[in-house]
Amino acid sequence: MSASRRSGTTDELGPEEPEPDGADLLAALLDGMDAALCAFDADGVVTHWNREAERVLGWSAEEAVGRHGFAGWAVRPADAEEVQGRLLASMHAPGRQVNEFALLTKDGGRVLVRTQSAAVRGPDGKPAGVYCAFSEVHAQIDLERSIALSEALFEDAAWGVVLVDADLRPAVVNGHAARAMGTGRTAALGRPLGDLIGQGVEELESALAHVLAEGPPPSPTEVWVTLRRPGEAGGRAERRCWRSGFVRLASPLAEEPVPLGVGWLFQDVTESKQTEQEAAQLRFRSQQLHRAARAAAECENPAEAATVHLDFALAGFADHAVIDLVASEEPLRLVRSAATPSGAPGPSLLVSRGALPVRYAEGHPALQCVERAGSVRAAAEGGVVRGDWAQDRQWPEGTVYALCAVLRSRGRTVGVVTFLRGASRVGFERGDAVYAESVAVRIAGAVDLAWALAAER
């Protein structure tokens, strides 16, 4: 069906393959447009009408082309003069004119459309007519809302928004996401995520690849990552928790869905997650102290009760521990009383060395702890196993972090308990020292009781 008036004849270049003339090409272009389009000559007669216009209003090209304006068929009589006047006024106005009209469909319904009209110039430069592109207002509003939403997400959103291409590289980054990653909006574009994120990048890239292949997960995902800070030696990272949502982006113009990338939205929930973890940790440690007290109460030997407290404290807290008791104050000498196995994990064992002191060098954390009557933390440089650092301090091989808590009972220092961690754990923090001191109080009471009973004997 023709979408326009045609004139002229087709020039044949061969007996079987005629070349289409300009009218055929124009009709094909008009019918392939996604927007409804019609055109009027200088007298207001419809000269072009494409398939999208037929879909919106129901009038075919044969019914529309040749009519004078919209009066009597595509617009109410009361509105015909105003609509005609606005459309034809576009011939003498600069640029495009935007209007909204209520047009009639072939079945008698009304459709509110938004039109963009502009003058069509003849060879002499004078107005020869008007073309008018129109679409249903609700469709136009939906498009504008989508564009406005995209702009708002990338300008004012209170969470990070990143568009990742099919190669898993950022294509668009909003300001919030750039600040969260510690980089600029343009500096992150096109770079591998591994340049911005340290630990956790594999999990994140796996999630993005899954979304590209299978679609988004049904619920948000919490991803722990570390951020590489530029200019810091070794790319030192900061651990963060991002609650992330993903959507797959597909081209609406392709016949089959073609993934363009992934929309990644995330919010930093590190503080709330850390608060949850600290609360759970506090509950667990309180339960361990309670269980240890009940178990120690059943021990006939107070020294054995001390090791019970030590074993319950180790769960989730440290890899190894040792108890050193004060043998003499001047000079200060410490004697090993109990220790966890240095090889395979197991319960703490009492050590029988008589009065032989542990050969601690001057400035050893355990000696400092006794002298200060307070907790002391120590760590290998960089938090990694280095040479004989642990061996020089009489600690099991592989030790990287240490926390010494003083054992005090009845106003005097009876020894020190040392908790040890390997490189797979993080260093001891202030909250860990508080817990260690709570355990030390119970161990000190058991040790003091053991000494009192020994003195009676």
Short overview:
The protein is 33% helix and 28% strand.
Can you describe this structure?
This protein has 457 residues and is an alpha+beta fold. Helix content is 33%, strand content 28%. The protein has 12 helices and 16 strands. It has helices spanning 22-31, 51-57, 61-64, 77-89, 137-155, 175-181, 201-214, 270-296, 302-314, 365-372, 389-392, 430-456, and strands at residues 36-41, 46-49, 97-104, 110-121, 127-136, 160-165, 170-173, 221-228, 237-250, 259-268, 320-329, 332-339, 349-350, 376-379, 399-409, 412-422. The strands form 3 sheets. Strands 13-12-11-16-15-14 form a 6-stranded antiparallel beta sheet, with helices on both faces. The protein has a 5-stranded antiparallel beta sheet with strand order 2-1-5-4-3. A 5-stranded antiparallel beta sheet has the order 7-6-10-9-8, with helices on both faces. A hairpin with a 2-residue loop joins strand 15 and strand 16. The longest helix has 27 residues, at 270-296. It is rod-shaped and about 125 Å long. It starts with 21 loop residues before the first helix and ends with a helix. The relative contact order is 0.06. Mean pLDDT is 85; it is low at 1-19 and 231-236.
CA-atom Rg in angstroms: 40 Å
Number of DSSP strands? 16
- On the 0 to 100 scale, the average pLDDT is 85
Ranges where pLDDT stays below 50 over 5 or more residues in a row are 1-19, 231-236
What summary fits the major beta sheet? 6 strands, antiparallel
Tell me the strand percentage band.
Answer: 25-35%
Instruction: Find the structural class using helix and strand composition.
Output: alpha+beta
Taking strands numbered 1, 2, ... along the chain, how are they ordered across the largest sheet? 13-12-11-16-15-14
Contiguous helical run count: 12
Helix coverage percent of residues?
Answer: 25-40%
Series of H and E elements? HEEHHHEEEHEEHHEEEHHEEEHEHEEH
What is the end-to-end distance?
A: 116 Å
Give the overall shape, derived from the CA principal axes. Answer: rod-shaped
